[in-house]
Design brief:
The protein is 51% helix and 11% strand. By secondary structure, it is α+β, with helices and mostly antiparallel strands. The N and C termini lie far apart (68 Å). Bound molecules: manganese (II) ion (MN).
């Protein structure tokens, strides 16, 4: 158990330095967390190993994997940031502190906040690798959720479905999205989960037989056309995505053709169209089910050709054709780019996209330079080109991006309060409760006493103190940005009712 060789085997051409760094983080974390136990009674180190393994499975660098081992060390052990820096340097300290900060964000549990919370996560993480570590940390927690008390399970699983999985989707990391959704599914919708499980169980055997038979025939046809450099496998739809699709089709399983799909991967883009030609000349395609996401990629960057064909003996099968590179990108999305160690080739200058750029390694919001830089993923470049066509949810989100307009600050408990840019402590107090606003006497921002008229910044932790005798003053109004605070102050002063 917790065999480091398991992690080494997931690395792509690791150097001796890569292995040494991971081994050092492994040893350091194991020692620092000695005696730490999880809810299940197992050593805490199992969680760190599980998280690091999830990160390695995405093909991330040794630095990110090492940070995965160390991600709870500041929060849960006596190791100080200084010691961590001394042992592992600035970059790993930066990643670990980033993950620690994200851990302080709490979910309100209301859909209204979900989008803000997702944006906050992205903003706070400052570096895409922090976000990836956090997602992998959550995935391991989901994998072991059965040991958590019942009343907490639902909250954590919901948060996973509403916040974490959509972030993985946005980043194009399908593998993480699928695993997060499927582990959360059974806690959030236990009855539906059971239903889907039964459907899958009933269909699986028939699907396997059908696919294997078709695969043989297709291989034969490809060989006949002197096509040899390809790889075929098949995938079955994940439980949660089948559940979502079934809802869309009002429960009619028979009208869902892509419960399973045959996937053909080839070397070159031109080969994709050759394979499509061979498929269509042998099996009749269903009209309007041919999708060329190679020519027009999906907005999260997904590229592939999809077609659905009649097998000729009553079956219907979806065939997906793509290059190996597209296949890697489809599974790992942005994660498949951050492991590259290339210089930045092209800068995105569109201000609407800066938030994405700002979380790529190499440059982050704090202006602190991290050593690993990366190329801008193609889907981000494409987003710039798609800008004018809009219409898609994602684009609208970015267009109305309220990063520029909104800030997110924390209560001492870690709840998120969403305020207009340049809001001050008084706005914050009124956003919590009228009584607090009306009687605010002093405030601490990030632990320091500061004037209640102080302008707040993204990520500030704000504590306010109230006194019975404290009263609003007319002067406050000019500092307040929210209509609510202004109105309440006017009311308290008797200017309006
Ligand atoms: Mn953790």
């Amino acid at each position: 158990m917790n065999d480091i060789k398991e992690i080494f085997s997931l690395l792509n051409n690791p150097t001796e330095e890569d292995k040494a760094l991971i081994q050092k983080a492994y040893d350091f974390a194991q020692k620092a967390h000695t005696g730490g136990v999880r809810k299940s009674g197992e050593p805490y180190f199992n969680h760190l190993f599980g998280t690091a393994k999830n990160i390695a499975e995405l093909g991330m660098s040794s630095t990110t994997i090492a940070a995965g081992f160390l991600h709870d060390i500041i929060e849960d052990t006596n190791v100080t940031p200084d010691e961590l820096k001394k042992e592992f340097g600035d970059e790993i300290l930066f990643l670990v502190e980033g993950v620690t900060k994200l851990g302080k964000i709490r979910h309100h549990g209301t859909a209204r906040y979900d989008e803000s919370l997702r944006k906050l996560f992205v903003a706070m993480s400052q570096d895409i690798r922090v976000l990836i570590i956090k997602l992998c940390d959550r995935l391991h927690n989901m994998m072991t959720l059965e040991h958590v008390p019942k009343e907490k399970q639902l909250r954590i699983a919901k948060e996973t479905l509403e916040i974490y999985a959509p972030i993985a989707y946005r980043l194009g990391i399908k593998k993480l999205q699928r695993d997060l959704e499927d582990t959360a599914f059974k806690y959030v919708y236990p009855n539906e989960y059971e239903e889907i499980r039964k459907i899958m169980k009933a269909k699986r055997e028939k699907i396997e037989i059908e696919l294997t038979k078709f695969e043989k025939l297709l291989k034969k046809e490809l060989a006949k056309n002197n096509f040899t450099d390809f790889h075929i496998d098949h995938r079955v739809k994940s439980m949660y995505s089948l559940f979502k699709k079934l809802k869309k089709y009002k429960g009619d399983v028979e009208s869902i053709y892509d419960i399973s799909a045959l996937r053909v991967t080839v070397k070159e883009v031109a080969d994709c169209y050759k394979v499509l030609g061979i498929v269509h000349s042998n099996w009749r395609p269903l009209p309007e089910r041919i999708k060329d996401y190679i020519a027009s990629p999906k907005l999260n960057g997904y590229q592939s050709i999809h077609t659905t064909i009649f097998t000729g003996d009553g079956g219907i099968i979806e065939v997906q054709i793509r290059t190996q590179e597209m296949d890697k990108e489809a599974e790992y999305g942005i994660a498949s780019h951050v492991s590259y160690k290339e210089g930045l080739k092209k800068k995105t200058t569109n201000p609407n996209l800066l938030w994405i750029r700002s979380i790529l390694p190499g440059k982050n919001m704090s202006g602190k330079k991290t050593s690993t830089s990366t190329d801008v993923p193609s889907w981000i470049k494409e987003l710039v080109e798609y800008q004018n066509e809009a219409g898609d949810e994602f684009i609208d989100d970015i267009k109305n991006d309220f990063f520029e307009e909104r800030i997110f600050v924390f209560t001492p408990k870690g709840d998120v309060i969403d305020l207009p840019k340049d809001s001050c402590v008084i706005d914050f107090a009124y956003a919590i409760h009228t009584d607090i606003g009306d009687h605010i006497s002093s405030a601490k921002i990030n632990g320091r006493f500061l004037a209640i008229t102080t302008t707040l910044k993204n990520g500030d932790r704000v504590e306010v103190e109230t006194k019975k005798g404290a009263k609003p003053s007319f002067k406050w109004i000019e500092f307040c940005k929210t209509t609510m605070a202004r109105r309440k102050i006017n009311q308290a002063l008797g200017i309006i009712k």
